[in-house]
Design brief:
This protein is of the alpha+beta class. The protein is built from 4 helices and 9 strands; from the N terminus they run H-E-E-E-H-E-E-E-H-E-E-H-E.
């Protein structure tokens, strides 16, 4: 058995850079729920680290462990590719700038990283949903009357896929019993 969580952090967190608008941006990665995401974004603010672009594996996926074949499968993962949004931009501008120049590049880099890493793969067929100007204050309210966990507006892509990890390819993340 391996810690698939640590495999993904090791593979993705601050390991890639994307060029957009004449600047290089380090891509951050994290896994968890909205509260964990809020804490991580606060941590980035305190340490003066650019928060975005961010790849966020949302908690709630199923983990299937095949002990005979020594592989771990993360089923129906929702992975968000996020950047901050300009409030006054219209969707057509977002799609020709933020999405074309940044978010789709980050998504492609994610695929390349997974495909080129021995022992890890994702579905050949997946689903992508576009979220222009996602209002995170509304999205992150725990209840209708509760305070939001997050603030701000984002442009985002949501990828739904399955990730398979061959345990023997990552012995450093094996959980010894």
């Amino acid at each position: 058995m391996i810690s698939h969580n640590l495999v993904l952090y090791d593979l993705l967190d601050r390991k890639m850079e994307v060029e957009a608008w004449g600047k290089n941006f380090v891509i951050n990665y994290m896994e968890g729920d909205l509260y964990e995401l809020a804490k991580k974004l606060e941590e980035y603010n305190r340490s003066n680290v650019l928060k975005f672009p961010l790849i966020w594996l949302v908690e709630g996926y199923d983990t299937k462990r095949n002990h005979l074949e020594r592989k771990t499968t993360l089923e129906d993962c929702q992975i968000l590719f996020i950047t901050s949004a300009e409030l006054n931009d219209r969707n057509q501008k977002r799609f020709s700038t933020t999405y074309k120049d940044l978010l789709y590049k980050v998504l492609s880099m994610f695929y390349e990283k997974v495909i080129k890493t021995s022992g890890i793969s994702c579905d050949n067929v997946d689903r992508i949903r576009v979220y222009p100007l996602k209002d995170m204050m509304e999205e992150s309210k725990p209840t209708a009357s509760g305070d939001p966990v997050l603030s701000g507006v984002w442009d985002a892509l949501s990828l739904t896929t399955t990730i398979e990890i061959k345990n023997e390819c990552f012995p450093q993340f094996e959980i010894k019993i």
